[in-house]
Specification:
homodimer; alpha+beta; 4 strands; globular
Chain lengths: ~200, ~200
């Protein structure tokens, strides 16, 4: 009966738009996933509520000065290694709530991957405030989506609840940072695990 | 005058014997460093005092349950990927004070790399208590070192002070976790950065 089986080569990508290391994976995953024959399901969520449950008021990169200083230098080196543009944002972490809601509202749309990449570039290359509706409207327009419709959807109760649910699901699955890739029941945390996660997904039927 | 210049292809390896990800790098670095033409300077230190300064009473893998659960699964996968033996220790984190003091006492000795590898294997493959003087004495004997002499040295004030100084230096250099590799003024944190650190060291004169 194998002729009827459906290949399940899929990776779930839990992404927070404020997350520096998520930027690396968002920019890298397209060509790698295509080469591996794996499809990407975008799972926008918020790390903030998960951090708050640990008693943290903000990013560990702010709460731990040495770790924060290291991260900024590491991001420079990583972007150089991967050939990615990079500018340290003047505000960190940026408010990623609006971008996440828009990504929830646009789930499954043909422009969603382009929107996620474009928004990451706005934050981490162009130093723009992705918390601003004007900025997000401009990015949506650039990727061929309808800004007014999507900003209205992002402000609607079902989309707000959808993002809360996605964040709850992330926590229930044991996710504690971003990016996190999920393949079946396996979690892969961090841009450094992207290749391993794709290899796992590519090997599944 | 280049004929008189001395190649400075060196990597400093800050290692805590209780650290799971340090186990991966300890077992991997020998052949990789040789292939890169880089010499390894072992820097045994303790993460405990650095964690306590952040207000943490123990390892973040215990304080954050989701991160801890992830780490144990990730270690299984990583060991499988690298072809390394692995057994989850029945006690974590093990007390690494004695092993670190012995490694300080044995700095520069011909058996030091073998002792560090052997001690990591005792902790992370054989589930033995590396905090016990009897266990450490046996490991020292196996690598051709003199147990009585080294246990006495480990209990001496200069060696105790030497470990405190090394831990202070680690903190002053911005180290916040293990393994950390230092090449010149660059820090590389985590087993995932071992190759990058070696490439950096190999490229220096």
């Amino acid at each position: 009966m194998t002729g009827f089986s459906v290949a399940k080569r899929e990776i779930e990508f839990f992404v927070d738009f404020a997350s520096t290391y998520s930027y690396l994976s968002v920019m890298r995953i397209g060509s790698l996933a295509t080469a591996a024959g794996v499809s990407v399901r975008w799972r926008p969520f918020l790390l903030g509520p998960i951090f708050r449950e640990l008693g943290w008021s903000t990013s560990p990169f702010l709460l731990q000065a040495a770790k924060g200083a290291y991260m900024w230098r590491d991001m420079e080196r990583q972007c150089s290694k991967y050939g990615l543009a990079w500018r340290r944002p003047s505000e960190f972490p940026r408010n990623s709530l609006l971008a996440a809601r828009v990504a929830i509202a646009g789930e499954g749309q043909p422009w969603i991957a382009a929107f996620i990449r474009r928004t990451m570039t706005a934050n981490f290359v162009e130093d723009r405030d992705i918390g601003s509706p004007e900025v997000i409207a401009g990015l949506l327009r650039e990727v061929g989506a309808a800004p007014n419709e999507l900003l209205a959807a992002a402000a609607s109760e079902p989309v707000k609840a959808g993002l809360r649910t996605q964040t709850d699901k992330a926590r229930q699955r044991g996710i504690f940072g971003a990016p996190t890739f999920v393949v079946g029941a396996e979690l892969y945390w961090g841009n450094d695990r992207l290749e391993d996660a794709l290899a796992d997904a590519a090997g599944r039927q």
